[in-house]
């Protein structure tokens, strides 16, 4: 074998050795072009699931759950002719609110929203809408059971509080760990090994609820209370499905609040209160006055201007 005369000869010889037996330089170039085309095709297909085939597959897969929730939240009344379609739309309104909240949250983060994320939010909102359909009726049952006079302002306030914050406390206690398991563990994985669910719930408590439960409850309760007072306390909207429809907007606010608390879940450094700052100032005031009236030669160590 001839000895190489330069580094170029070494490189060319190595490239020829790496080619297949029946390959030629032209075949190598074609192979590289084919590989690049495959990579480009893969990037084109990486659309976050926003394609007809994937969406149609998921619609067929999850249709039984949507049908069940529709029937359980007024759908039976609609089929019997006792309710209009809009009065049976609770399980359809909430998913739209959850999907919108996810899209807005991603928009704020400058993140692309995938179909797989949207699919999860639609599924969660579907079950939440059904639960909300019945939860929104709880204040009415409470009023009837207690003979509460809702013609007075305090009666209206009590009726509102029967939903917010009274119903918020258990709802959030269930909602937060379930969403944590959905996003961090995976619903399918959790259901395949149900004996591990208590451990997942414990993890959700320590990683999320312990830091974010009360801030989320407090903030969302105050933000939504005026709307709940008008729709529930004043009874301006009496049909539970219409309340859920308005609640779809609440879902956007609630999800953004809950998501913001989760992202800012790290321990925050508390600023000193005004009272503590006043106390600290009063303690240091005599020393400051003493330093102010101290002679320049005695204050040389504390004042560079006088020390020169």
What can be said about this structure in brief?
The protein has 308 residues and is an all-alpha fold. Helices cover 75% and strands 0% of the residues.
Report on this model:
By secondary structure, the chain is an all-alpha fold. The chain has a domain at 52-263. 75% of the residues lie in helices and 0% in strands. It contains 13 helices and no strands. The radius of gyration is 32 Å and the shape is globular.
Report how far apart the termini are. 83 Å
Give the SSE order as H and E letters: HHHHHHHHHHHHH
Largest sheet entry: none
Helix content, binned percent = over 70%
Task: Give me the Rg, rounded.
Answer: 32 Å
Structural class, by secondary structure, is mainly alpha
- What is the number of beta strands? 0
Number of helical regions? 13
Overall, the morphology is globular
Please outline the helices and strands.
Layout: H1 7-18, H2 25-45, H3 52-79, H4 90-108, H5 115-135, H6 138-146, H7 153-163, H8 168-185, H9 187-192, H10 197-233, H11 240-263, H12 274-293, H13 304-307
Helix pairs in contact: 3-5, 4-5, 4-11, 5-11, 6-7, 7-10, 8-10, 10-11
Highlighted features:
308 residues, mainly alpha
